[in-house]
Structure formats: structure tokens, C-alpha cells
Design brief:
- The chain has about 375 residues and is mainly α.
- α4 packs parallel to α12.
- The radius of gyration is 21 Å and the shape is globular.
- The protein has 14 helices and no strands.
- It starts with about 35 loop residues before the first helix and ends with a helix.
- The protein is about 65% helix and about 0% strand.
Length: about 375
Amino acid sequence: MSRTGLEEDLRTVEVPVRAERRSRRHAADPARPDRLRLLDGLRLLAALTVLAYHFTARDSYAWGQRPSRLFPGLSQVTQYGNLGVNLFFIISGFVILMTAWGRPVDKFATSRITRLFPAYWAGVLLTGGLLLLVRPEGGLHGWEAITNLTMAQSALDVDHVDGVYWTLWVELRFYLLIGLLLAVGLTRRRVIGLIVFWPMLAALVHTTDQAFLSSLLIWNYAPYFAAGMALFLIYREGASVFHWLLVAYNWAIIVGLTGRYFPSGVDKKTHHQASLWVTLIVITVSILLVAACTSRVARRVQWRWLTTAGALTYPLYLLHEHWGWFFISHIRHWVSPVVTLVVVTAACLLMAWLIHRWVERPLAPRLKTWVARGLADARS
């Protein structure tokens, strides 16, 4: 464990050096590095694509006009930036399985709480303060901001302080499923069973209009997590035809779900008609990028700045939307749109670093101690 307690999981990926290998052909390389730094960089890239979507493609008050008119060519590309969320889910399937493997449920729960909540609380307070005190026309109520501190507002049908928080509810349900798997015993056979049957069962339940079960099973994003889990098996045990068939199987389900539910007509938020084939290509490339960033060759890349980039990803993702729009609305009158984009992106990155440095680093170790102690007392 690092001195901050944060360098496991989605931020800085710790890899199990002593992972079992199923055959001598897939024996571990004792010289391999302990961090997948390229995966950290890929996470920041995913966050920046979502940022580009919000700043240059999606409608908001920020520019005083439609971004599609201000950036007609760029917005045609960045309209696909929201697919950075899909990339996050693939990465999460890989990383969360790696984090959970060989751990008891309480250790897994502690790592998730420690990982998610410090920056999230800061994001709710900062964005909530902006919308309540500076931009009350946003319609946020104080009781909604308080409810958002639980991260369970979706379960209560309460609006999000920031629209991007919906993805955290998806992540929480995935953590719950992994926690249940840990409770019954996480084994290779059961992981493979989850990879194969979960996406298919979730989609089937959705077609029967069982809202609770389809929501619990994350019917529309299950194959993304499952594909990431299959990629972790490749990383852990070595590539094989069987492992790649698991990836291809979930990719095919993703293609089916995307094609079946792909929206027709012009998107009301971007005023563009997205292409199904471009969407499928972006998703396919996303899966291949995760595979590439976790390959044996990628493990040799040990640029430390990538870990720093990964550390900024989560707070950047939490803060950029409303604060970015607010900054744009005040800066756009003085400089060109391109300069505005650069300055506002830099400002959001600075805010992310400040949260990482002054909130996550000091609070996460304390929170970990409190949660671990509480769970230990409950267990005893």
C-alpha cells in the first residue's frame, strides 16, 4: 500500500506480482513493473473526451450559443466524447476484478469507500455551492445536495448535483455484484461464469420489463464490465483463444445492444446525428486500447507523469462540467473560443490537482482507518 492509500484501483493500478499462472507458458515475468501506467494515462484520456463533449458538443449556457455553431467541425468529432464513459466501464471491469481478487469482502468495501468518497464529497460541496450560491437559476435545492452526499440519489429518484454522477451509480451496482461474488467465494470458474452469463441474463431480464432486476444487473453496461474482466484474465493468466473468445462474446453483445437501442434522428443536446458505425468503431477501439495498455509491452512503460495524470482523472471528471461551463461563460467575452477552451481545461485540471493534493491525500488514509475499524468491530 502506498503512503496515501490511494494507489490501488482506478487511480494507480497496483498489479499482483505473485499472481498464479495456469501454465508454465504463462509464467510471471519477475522483472515486470508493478504499475500499469499506460492505463492511468488512458483513464485521463477518457475523462478529457468527456470534457470535450461537454465543452464543445453539448448544449449549455456557457458559450451563449450552440457549440455546434461555434465549433461546427470539432463538434462533429467531440459528439462521440461521451463514449469515454464506456471506456471507463471497460477499465473498471479490469481494475475492480484485479482489486477484488484474493481479498475478503471487508477489505474490498474499504478500498472502494476510500477510493470514491473523499473527492466525491468535495465535488458535491463545490459544485453544489456553485449552483446554490452563484447560479441559483440552475434549480438545485439544498436538500438535493445533501442527498447527493450519499451517492445513492438515483435510488431515491433525486436529481444529481452534476449530471456525470449517474455513472457512479452504475459503478456502485457493479461493486455490489463483485462484493456478492467475494461473499460466496471468488474463483476463476465463477468469474468466467459471471463474464458469460451476467450480460446475457441482464439483457434478457430487461426484455421482460423487470425494472428492479434489470437495474440491479446493469443491463445496458454489463458487457462493458465483463469485457474488462475478460481482459484481466488475459493479463493475469496470459492470452489464449478462450480468453479472447470471452472478450469477443461481450463485444458482440455490446454491438447488439448498441444497434438495437441506437437513437434515431438528431440528438437534442448536440444537434448532430451520430453514426452507428462510428460509435461501434469507437467502442471497439476502446476495448483494444485497454488490451494494449495492459499488455506485456505496455508494462515496460514507466513514465511517472502518467500516474500523476491518472491521479487527476477522478476529480477532473467530477468537477469539469458545471465549473467548466461557469468559467467559459466568463472568459469567452475576452479571448477567442480556442484560447477559452485551453484556459478552462487548464483551470479544471488545476482544480482536480488541488482536490487530489488537499482532500484525497489527507482524508483517504483517515477514512480508510475509520471504515476498516468499523467493519472489524462489526465482524467481531
